[in-house]
Specification:
9 helices, alpha+beta, two-stranded antiparallel sheet, elongated, five-stranded antiparallel beta sheet, single chain, TATA-Binding Protein
Length: 295
Amino acid sequence: MRGPLSRPWLRSHGVLTRSGWTLADPRPRLGPPATAGPAPPDDCRARDATLPIVGDNGRLYREREVKEILKRAAELHHAHDSSDSSKAMTRREIEDVARELGIPAALVARATNELVTAERRRPSAWWLGGKTGLTFEYQVQGRLDDATFDRLVEALRRALHDAGTLTEQRSTRIWTTQRPIPRAITLTVFEDDEETTVRLDERMPIDARTTVGASSFAGFGSSIFSAIPLKVLLGKAAVLVALPGVMLGGAALGWAIGRQIWRRRSAAREDQLRTVFADLVAIVDRAHHALAAGG
């Protein structure tokens, strides 16, 4: 007999003895047991990379669409690899990538300089309303020849209307304004065997304190003079009681006005010095690329 109750079937589904037959697993069998199969091949893992591009029929993408595609690709790349060390690039490598995208190396240099400058910006003094010093720094591979340094100095003289003074200490050359008032600006170029650093500084602590202090004193003095008409209106006793608060309020008002004045003044100086420094960076980059092309 070969039916479901045949002897081979009973042996395969349980234990057959002289005393009877016992089911080996009382639980219902819904299917074959799951087994760990072999790992999927590599081509299955990279299935996303082989998906066809929707609409990839030779169409031309507009500039806005190109930006969106590149932006999304960068986001996917960042999500795929979040390690900063694996994505680190030298400036030369960045220039190579930018060259493939049609971006001039001079713009890469300027963007790099702005990034370095942003990292070195001095914080504002809150009680003065603005910065008391400015620092712009740029580094380039190799050494800076005398002709390029002379062009840097001439550019500073034209922009600041100051002949300045030159000093040299070993591998460091320094140009400073002759008149520290109204502005004390210093250009420093120091070199080593591998790179040259160009730094432009302006020190403004005296200007900031003078501006805010003079405004505070003016507000304090104005509050004292305002007590004269108050004496006629309120009487001497009332004025004596109110005079300390009036003087304090006048000084606070003058301080607030002085902060606003220095904030605008320091911001204007920073904008001007940033423009001047951008011109210096352009001079250094032109000399650097000319030297590289000639070498």
